Amino acid sequence: MAITEALCDEMRQLAALYPQSRSALLPMLHLVQSAEGEVSIDGINACAEVLGITSAEVTAVSTFYTMYKRKQVGKHHIGVCINTLCGLLGGDAVYAALSERLGVGHDQPSADGEFWLERIECQAACTHAPVMTVDWEFMDDVTPATAVDIVDRLARGEVVESTRGPIIRDFAATAHTLAFPNDGLADQGSSVDDKMLAGLMIAKERGMSAPSAPAPAAPTSQTEG
Amino acid sequence: MTLTPVITEHWDAPDLYTLEGYRRFGGYGALASALKQDPDSIIQVVKDSGLRGRGGAGFPTGMKWGFVPQNDGKPHYLVVNADESEPGACKDIPIMMANPHALVEGVIIASYAIRASHAFIYIRGEVPNALRKVANAVEQARAAGFVGSNILGTDFSLEIVVHAGAGAYICGEETALLDSLEGYRGQPRLKPPFPAVAGLYASPTVINNVETIANIPYIIERGAAWLRQFGTEKSPGFKVFAVSGHVKRPGIYEAPLGITMRELLDYAGGMRDGRTLKFWIPGGSSVPMLVEEHLDLPLTYEDMAGAGTMLGTGTPMVFDETVSVVKAVTRWLEFYKHESCGKCTPCREGTYWITGMLEKFEHGHGSVEEVDKIVHVCTQIAGRSFCALGDAAATPYPAALKYFRDEFLAATHTSADEQFDPVASYLFAGAAR
Ligand SMILES: Cc1cc2nc3c(=O)[nH]c(=O)nc-3n(C[C@H](O)[C@H](O)[C@H](O)COP(=O)(O)O)c2cc1C
Ligand code: SF4
Ligand code: FES
Prior knowledge:
The structure holds two protein chains of two kinds. In chain A, a hairpin with a 2-residue loop joins strand 4 and strand 5. Chain A contains eight helices and five strands. Chain A starts with a helix and ends in a 20-residue tail after the last helix. By secondary structure, chain A is α+β, with helices and mostly antiparallel strands. Chain A has helices at 5-15, 25-36, 41-51, 55-62, 84-102, 144-155, 171-179, 198-205; strands at residues 76-81, 108-109, 115-120, 132-134, 137-139. The mean pLDDT of chain B is 97. In chain B, strand 5 (238-245) and strand 6 form a beta hairpin. Chain B has 18 helices and eight strands. Chain B is 41% helix and 11% strand. At the A-B interface, helix 2, helix 5, helix 6, helix 7 and helix 8 of A face helix 5, helix 7, strand 3, helix 10 and strand 5 of B. The complex binds flavin mononucleotide (FMN), iron/sulfur cluster (SF4) and FE2/S2 (inorganic) cluster.
C-alpha cells in the first residue's frame, strides 16, 4: 500500500468540491485509510501537501476523530454498540462474545490482522438494538450467537449482507465510500425494514392518514364538499 | 391520537429512495412551485407554519432563516446537520435511507429561500449507507436539473456537497460542526456571533436538522395552515418518533406532536411480556428521564418543559424494571466523558470526576456522601460549560436520583449486576452463545 499519484488526484478532486479546500480534510483522511489501512505518516504528509498546510495541522485533526486509526485496521472493522440502550439490552454480551471469538479487546486488531474490534457509541439505530456494524454497515438485532456467526462467515470469505445496506466489502472499500459516497451501491440490499415501517403498517391497517390536501382557508366555514 | 405518516408515508414503496419513486408520489412538485415564488415568501410560509427545529432545541425554523442578512454581498450557506449521534436518537438516519429525496428537495428549497448557492449535508461517518443514499439522491436530482446551474430554467443555481464526518458526537453541536466542516478539530465556537451572521467561512449560514429540512417540501406543497392542523399552538406539526427499548414493537411511528407516550407505547405493542415500565426518556440521553406518572403528558416542547424535561429529538427510549438505573446512568456518563471535546474545564474535568464516582457505584463501592457529591459536581458543570454538551452530561444523574435514590444508596454496598441480573434485560433469551 502506498500513496500513489492517483490517490493524490482523488485528494485534489475532493479539495475542489469546497469553496475552501481545507474543508476536504476529513474525506481526504478517509481516503488515506482506504489506501493505507490506517492514517499513515505518508498519508498525513500527502494531505498536508495537497492542502498547503503543515503535517502537524493534519495530525492534530486526525487525532481528534475516533474513526481515524493509527494502526492497521485489517480487513474488517467490527463495531458493537455498547451505549446504554444497546449495551444493557444485550450489546454487552455481544461484545463479550466477539472479544472472546477474536481474542482481542476494545480498539484492537486481531492477531491475524483480519479483524478490528471496537466498542462503538450509539449508531442511530437504537430501534434495532443490539446493533453491530461490519465495516460500518448495519448488522441489526444481533445476539451473541449471530454476531459470532457473522464473524465466522467473514473469516471463511463467505458473502455476508448488511441488514440495511449492501453486501459487506471490506474496511478499505467503506473508507473509500466515506470520501466518495457515490459508490454505485445505493440500489444494493434494502434499507427499509419492518421496524422502520412499524407505524406506517399500523396506520394502513387502521385506515389512519394525515390529510394531504391544504387545510380549508377559513376555519369558520362549515360547508362540507 | 391517530398516526399521521407524512415523511414516512411511502416508505413501503421499495423504490422511494430513487428519483422515479419519489416523483411518483409528487416529489419535486414543491420545488417547482417554490421557485415561482419570492424567496422571502417561502421564509414567510415556514414562519407561518410554526415549524420548530427537530435537532433537539426546537428553535423556530422560519425565524432562524429570517436572521440571515440579505443583500450583504456575502455568500450564504445551508448546512444540514446529519450527525445524529445523540444516544437514543434514531430518526434522521432512517429518513435519509428511506426518503433521501425529501431531504434533498428540502435542501434546494431552503437554499433558495435563504439565497444560498452552496449547501452541505454533514453526515456522521459511521453510517455509510445513509451517506450513499443521500449522495445518490443528489446525483439523481442533478441529472434531472434540480441541482446545478439555472435550476428549472430560473437564475437560481445550487451546489450540494455530501460530506462525511469521522466519529465525534460533539460535531452535532452546530458550531463544532462548522469547524469540522472547515477541516479542523470539531470544537464549539463562541456565540455570538451566531452562524446566521458568521457561520461557515465566516459567512451567513443556516444549520438545520435532517427532519426539519425534510418537512419543508410538504409544508411548501400543502401550506402553513395544513401543518398547523397537527400538534399544538406552540408545537405545530408532526414528528417522526422512534421508539426503542423494552417494547414489543420498537420502530418508527410518525404522529402529531401532542400524542402521549402512553399512546405511542400502545402503538409499539406495549412493554414486552410480563414486564412493567421503569423509566423512559422522551428524546435522547441529554434530556431528563421520566416515569410512569408522565405517560399521559402530551409530547410537545411545552409540555415536556413543564414536566422538567425536554422533547429533545423525540425518540423515546423505554426501559423496564429489569434495568439498573445506576448502570444506565454510568454508561451515559462514560459516553459524555468520551465525547467531551476538552475545550472547557467544567465539562472536561467534571465528566471524568462524575464517571469515576459512578463507576464505583456500579461496582457496589459508592459512598453515601458521594450520592450528593455527584449532584454538586453536576451543578458545577451545568450552565458553566462552553456548550450544551456540558449541560447534557450534568442531566442524567440528578434526574435519575429524583426517582431512584434508593438504588444509588444500595449501590454503596451491592453492585448493579447483583441488584439486577443483566441477563434479564437482554432482548434475547439468556446469554445464549
Ligand atoms: C452535543 C450536541 C450534539 C448535537 N447533535 C445534533 C445532531 O446530531 N443533529 C442535530 O440536528 N442537532 C444536534 N444538536 C443541536 C444543534 O446544535 C442545532 O441546534 C441543530 O442542528 C439545529 O437544527 P434545527 O433548528 O433544525 O433543530 C446537537 C447539540 C449539541 C450540544
Ligand atoms: S462543554 Fe464539553 S464539549 Fe462543550 S466545549 Fe466544553 S469541553 Fe467541549
Ligand atoms: S444505543 Fe445502540 S444504536 Fe443507539
